[in-house]
Design goal:
The complex is a heterodimer of chains A (294) and B (321).
Chain A (H helix, E strand, L loop, with lengths): L2 H34 L2 E2 L7 E2 L3 H7 L2 H32 L6 H9 L7 H11 L5 H8 L14 H7 L6 H12 L3 H9 L4 H12 L1 H15 L4 H7 L10 H10 L4 H29 L8
Antiparallel strand pairs in A: 1-2
Helix pairs in contact in A: 1-14, 3-8, 3-11, 3-13, 5-12, 8-11, 11-14, 13-14
Chain B lengths: L50 H29 L3 H4 L14 H9 L2 H32 L5 H10 L5 H14 L7 H4 L7 H12 L4 H8 L4 H9 L4 H17 L2 H6 L8 H11 L4 H21 L1 H12 L3
Helix pairs in contact in B: 1-14, 3-14, 4-8, 4-11, 9-10, 11-14, 11-15, 13-14
Classes of the chains: A mainly alpha (294), B mainly alpha (321).
Chain lengths: 294, 321
């Protein structure tokens, strides 16, 4: 056996754990999910083939529309907010001052608390009576809203509390900022460029690959928001925070409509896929790749 | 194993703590490796900061730090208040004397010790699984040549885009058939079959290692597993540690998967227990804050012990290339 052939066999042996896992836990489940999306099934008995009925049903399902609306609004606000917030924090902790490392740690710390505890803490902060936020607002003479309990304020509240997790985006952007060659700044300074000019003409173009990467991550993540909606508001009040994945969860594990839940999941998949591809493609118009100059 | 953690838009049902390596560039070139972030930009600027600007920077850093620390301080302060002080207006910032009994009462109201043991078993299982599987797979992708490798690597990366809900229902059905529902197996076993994010991370690291050492070992007749075990892994501790702490954090914070796969209360993880506690004990915020603090404490400790690895691990996937 030739050594190249042997190497190829070894390669497939080494990746076999992942390959088997991919088949068992991803590809086959995806195929089953696609099949189930054309059926009616409550986990008992055999799935009943109903063609496109599940998909047709979405058109007249007001809760599907609501879930899509809530998730879209959330994404449209969250993604730019995280971009600006994360980048601002990164610019701040990229300054050459003593002790800046301590601040990086402080800004990143809340990001490791992700999960139920993070949400429970913010529920307490948002609590209309005795909560931190309305206490602080009260101190400056503002009567705060009822946040998570108010249908108009519930979704903005869930958005507001995400700022505490900007540290993760900060670290991504910080890495991008530190990858900008200092020679570029030095050359610009010789040409008399000020701080603002340097930001718009050097920093921003140079980190566009990082921005694209962070945006894609952000969109894939926000469309799958679940924990905050499940724990803090359980989709309410009045379905004001009925996130898409929460709706899928309810259909699947509360109403046992496995077929409809699968159809909903596939629609989500297609949305994420299309958005990611569009964003990726749009990159050729605004992302600057240094290596592509030749 | 698909990690589920995070909140809001922070990769909720996705990869938990870890960002995806969907690099906008080609994703083939080794990134900066676990080199770490520098305190200052490479090559110090010739002109030092003028004092006024420095003052402004410290002012901004300080103000943001206060905003970021305030919720944590509030959490700690609330957890130590007697019930009558929790809702007091104006608020009591420093409960005096601190009521430490809140911790004992909150943690014994539900069997949090049991939940902690369950969570630990799941986390350790997932860590062992990832260490065994991801290193081998990553080594193959980093070093071995074979037809079809590019295709499988693209496939690996593309799985990071897949929303968990697409496979959630069939996986539930599968684990149900296997009799794994209400056991820890659905939360541990998949980890032994690799995780795309950690495979990518380790591959990037292996690519930065000089191949000379391996060549020498191979001339001496070592096979691939021996090379991996005796040559590669001993010099890969930072990358392996990154996988360990990310897996730990993601497993510890996971919510959706335990919610689906665990049912009996005695099998609850800490996050499920905390959520249950919130539902049954909505009024006493002091107890809730005490329990929340204890739940996040291990992750915070690990974060402080391995801070650099956390930050480097996230950063290394973000650097273009």
């Amino acid at each position: 056996m030739s050594s190249r052939r042997r190497e190829a066999i070894t390669f497939y042996l080494t990746i076999s754990p992942w390959l088997i896992g991919f088949l068992a836990f991803t590809l086959v489940p995806m195929a089953i999910s696609l099949y189930l999306s054309f059926t009616r099934w409550d986990l008992f008995g055999a799935p009943q083939w109903i063609g496109l009925e599940n998909y047709a049903r979405m058109a007249s399902d007001p809760l599907f529309a609501q879930a899509l609306k809530v998730t879209t609004i959330y994404t449209l606000v969250y993604v730019p907010m995280e971009l600006v917030g994360g980048l601002s924090l990164a610019l701040l902790v990229n300054q050459k001052v003593r002790g800046v490392g301590v601040f990086r740690t402080i800004f990143y710390l809340p990001s490791v608390l992700a999960g139920v505890a993070y949400v429970v803490l913010w529920m307490w902060i948002f609590n209309p009576q005795g909560g931190l936020l309305n206490t602080l607002l009260g101190a400056i003479g503002i009567q705060g809203p009822r946040w998570l309990i108010d249908p108009r304020w519930a979704l903005p509240s869930l958005l507001l509390m995400t700022f505490w997790g900007w540290g993760r985006a900060m670290v991504l952007y910080l890495a991008g900022l530190q990858g900008v060659p200092p020679e570029l700044y030095e050359a610009a300074e010789i040409d008399g460029a000020g701080t603002t000019a340097k930001f718009w003409h050097i920093t921003l173009p140079m980190i566009t690959p990082t921005i694209l990467f962070a945006l894609i991550l952000s969109i894939i993540g926000t469309f799958q928001t679940f924990t905050s909606a499940f724990v803090a508001t359980n989709g309410g009040p009045l379905d004001a925070t009925l996130f898409y994945v929460l709706y899928i969860y309810r259909q699947a594990f509360q109403f046992f409509r496995m077929g409809y839940a699968s159809a909903l999941a596939w629609v989500l998949f297609v949305i994420i896929l299309v958005l990611t591809l569009v964003l990726f493609r749009s990159g050729q118009f605004w992302v600057y790749y240094e290596g592509k100059r030749e | 194993m698909r990690q589920v953690a995070g909140i809001g838009g922070l990769g909720d049902t996705n990869k938990g703590a870890s960002p995806n390596p969907l690099s906008p560039a080609d994703g083939q070139t080794p990134s900066a490796g676990i080199g770490g972030l520098r305190e200052t930009r490479r090559g110090a600027s010739p002109n030092p900061l003028i004092p006024a600007k420095r003052l402004l920077i410290y002012g901004l850093l300080g103000a943001v730090a206060v905003i970021f620390l305030l919720p944590l301080f509030w959490m700690l302060s609330s957890s130590l208040k007697p019930e009558w002080q929790v809702l007091a207006n104006p608020p009591v910032w420093l409960p005096n004397p601190p009521r430490w009994a809140n911790y004992r009462e909150a943690l014994t109201y539900l069997p949090f010790g049991r939940y902690a043991v369950n969570t630990l078993i799941i986390s350790l299982g997932a860590i062992v699984g990832h260490l065994l599987s991801c290193t081998i797979v990553a080594y193959g992708f980093a070093r071995l040549r074979a037809p079809g490798k590019g295709f499988f690597f693209a496939l690996l990366i593309s799985t990071l885009m897949l929303p968990y809900p697409v496979t959630m229902v069939p996986l539930f059905v599968l684990f149900n058939r296997l009799g794994w529902i209400d056991t820890f197996l659905p939360l541990i076993v998949p980890a032994f079959f690799g995780n795309a994010f950690y495979i990518f991370l380790l591959r990037q690291f292996f690519l930065t290692l000089p191949p000379d050492l391996e060549d020498a070992a191979r001339i001496d007749g070592a096979n691939t597993l021996q090379v991996l075990r005796h040559v590669i892994l001993p010099i890969s501790t930072p990358a392996l540690a990154t996988v360990v702490i990310f897996t730990f954090q993601a497993s510890w914070n996971d919510f959706l998967q335990p919610l689906i796969f665990l049912q009996d209360q005695s099998n609850y993880t800490l996050t499920l227990g905390l959520n249950f506690f919130r539902g049954s004990f909505q009024v006493n915020w002091a107890y809730l804050m005490a329990a929340s603090l204890v739940v996040v404490l291990p992750v915070v400790i690990v974060f402080f012990l391995a801070q650099r690895l956390f930050i480097q691990g996230i950063a290394m996937t973000g650097i273009k290339g």
